[in-house]
Amino acid sequence: MTAITDLHVKAADGGDTDLGTYAGKVLLVVNVASKCGFTPQYEGLEALHRRFADRGFEVLGFPCNQFGAQEPGDAAEIANFCSTTYDVTFPVFAKIEVNGSDADPLFAELKKQAPGFLGTTGIKWNFTKFLVGRDGQVVERYAPTTKPEDIAADIEKLL
Asked: Active-site residue among 12, 36, 78, 158?
């Protein structure tokens, strides 16, 4: 299987980001949205980021507008919302699609490595989370309803 850290994604400014810069780290990859009932999870994601960052952990946020048009903003609006509303310091990348023929290759690989309930591959909603080990392979997939603080013990095991 392809290591997540072998892929490239678009930064919020449209530039290329080599996920290889995160090689050797434990990652929590999340499709996020600013107008979703789960949006307050930004607070918990940021808490995880701050708690574990010095031990080799990163949260990576990927805005997505595919679910109820809950991420309508452009990159500047998303960045402003994240920083002013939730004091987000973890990286938030360019808005992407996570399902369908235009799904970002990162999410195609995440879904391949960690199918959902009963083997389904589609992302069901915003704030689906993928925990990636230091080897770049997906360890676990979490539903949008899973609170970030409920993932802390799993992160701890990988650190």
From this structure: 36
Q: How far apart are CA 114 and CA 137, in angstroms?
A: 9
Structure tokens at 105: 């290759």
List, for residues 23-35, the tens digit of each pLDDT value. 999 999 999 999 9
For 104, the token pair is: 């970002």
In whole angstroms, what is the distance from residue 124 CA to residue 146 CA?
A: 13
The span from the CA of 25 to the CA of 158, in Å, is: 9
Concerning whether 64 is annotated as a catalytic residue, the answer is: no
10 three-class SS:
strand
Task: Report which of 145, 103, 139 is spatially closest to residue 126, judged by C-alpha positions.
Answer: 145
Q: Strand locations in the chain, DSSP E?
A: 8-10, 16-18, 26-32, 57-63, 129-132, 138-142
9-58 residue pLDDT tens: 999 999 999 999 999 999 999 999 999 988 999 999 999 999 999 999 99
Give the pair of three-digit tokens for residue 57. Answer: 């952990």
Going from the C-alpha of 133 to that of each of 22, 23, 95, 139, the distances in angstroms are: 11, 9, 24, 6
